[in-house]
Amino acid sequence: FGIASDEKFVITTTNRKEITEDNFSELVQDGVTLYLLQSVDQMLLLATKERIDFLPHYDTLVKSGMYEYYASEGQNPLPFALAELIDNSLSATSRNTGIRSIQIKLLFDDSQGKPAVAVIDNGSGMSSKQLNNWAVYRLSKFTRQGDFESDHSGYVRPLPVPRSLNSDISYFGVGGKQAVFFVGQSARMISKPAESQDVHELVLSKEDF
């Protein structure tokens, strides 16, 4: 790597966790991308890519969420799908100390390749590991445990009140991915953890599947 004998460096995961002798076996596994940096918080010079491989749970086929949308008793199911996406933003901004900003944009041009629905918030953000877990179908944000790092770490479900900006508003609870693919053909998640300078991007495409 062209490192001088007197030069100091660190090896980290994409979540900027430094690899040490104590945590080597825990953090260094097949498929993990590592950074060789001068310091843990060094600015990356180029964008990097990390392939995510996972086997969808069998519930993807038998409980994909479409039944709830199409069985919505004659109501327009589109608002329910949007509510799922907004619900993620409500969770992410629940602990904001300042302004909570959640925007919904309907993009009818080709700026994103095709017309798109964009939900933008100033929440806590997700690491690459949390984005990975978001991609796993039927992995509830309230039941993740063990190796799964929650994408809503520390989030506490609000008290049951009428649906508002201080409550869970998702109607069916079938998850953001099902909502995305009910509305369109692909999902693009761009997230920057509040405590990190790294921006993480995840793309799920029906065409790729």
TrEMBL record:
Swiss-Prot/TrEMBL GO biological process terms: double-strand break repair
Q: Which Pfam families match?
A: HATPase_c_3
InterPro entries from the xrefs? Answer: HATPase_C_sf, SMCHD1
Q: Which domain of life is it from?
A: Eukaryota
This chain belongs to the protein called SMHD1 protein
- Say which species the protein is native to: Machaerirhynchus nigripectus
